[in-house]
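Below is how a single chain appears once it has passed through the pipeline. First comes the sequence as given, then the structure the pipeline wrote out for it. We keep one example in the README because the format questions we get most often are answered faster by looking than by reading.
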Amino acid sequence: MGVIGRAIVTFCLLGYGPTITRAEESTPRDEEASRSPAEENASRKRDENQARSRELAGHYFIPSQNVDLRLATTHFKFGVALGYANATVQNIALDFGALLEGIEFQAALADAVLIRGIASGVTLVGTNEQTAIQNGATFQYALGGGASYTHRFFDRLQISTSVDVTGGTSYALSPGLALEDSINQGQLNADRILLQRSVTNVTGGVQAALGLHPVVGVYADIGYDHEFFGDAEGLPSDDDGSVYFGVALSLDVHAATPVPIGLQASYLATVPTGDAPEDRLSHAGSGGLFYSARADLALGLEFSYLGIPTDIRDVNLELYEGRFIIQYFW
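Resulting structure:
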């Protein structure tokens, strides 16, 4: 379901240097002549390292937010997304905006072991009167890290296993709850106008990437995510587990033409493992357009849709999101 999806459920239930060209591209002759042997060797080594880390069978993979791509790369990744969501809760229409920021730094050790640090934040704000009164706003931040072990087969297939742990806090501004308490008690009661809750996620998964052709690659991710909630009055407190499966298609037009464009399409299904009424299959899809001329850079826009059908309090949720992504490799 993802960070935004989980935050939306809570919200409604409240009542990425120097240019390095691709390894296969030739360096202009005048640049070659101006380089010393040491500089030429260093440049060639950098290109070779990038080819080994980000490329399979000549294909440079285009990333997706929905599907983890755990290639043996050292990289810095930054993403910021704007979203619009609508929900129906007991036949009441709720509309709200979403803002998400995420940062990831990953280091590849010995071309097989990956370690990373992660930071993210999500803000949800009601955009109509009903939503603002009933649900107000929610902010959630998370910090964490993870590790992966990867193995490459025949320079075409790479398989990874990963574990990530993140922890943070969510703050929910809930004027509707405070108003309800005040009416029921016959006096002003603002105890629940700001609700705070700790959230910890533990995620384990297996990722696979396959280079089919310099133009085409596919990758997939399957795993389990468990979310632990801290106690907070007025918020769901039960732990929540889910199994997820995602698959993505990566197209690099620049591998066959001078056009420096990469395309990506992905699908993600999430199946909660609990028995609660809100535990329903959710679907997410995305498409992306990226600049693909450089081996050391992934730069582009990704557009995604998330649907969360759920029966609890007759809630149905939809999220539309546009995300800017920059990922630098070295």
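The helical segments are 2-13, 29-34, 37-54, 129-134, 175-185.

See the next section for the split statistics.
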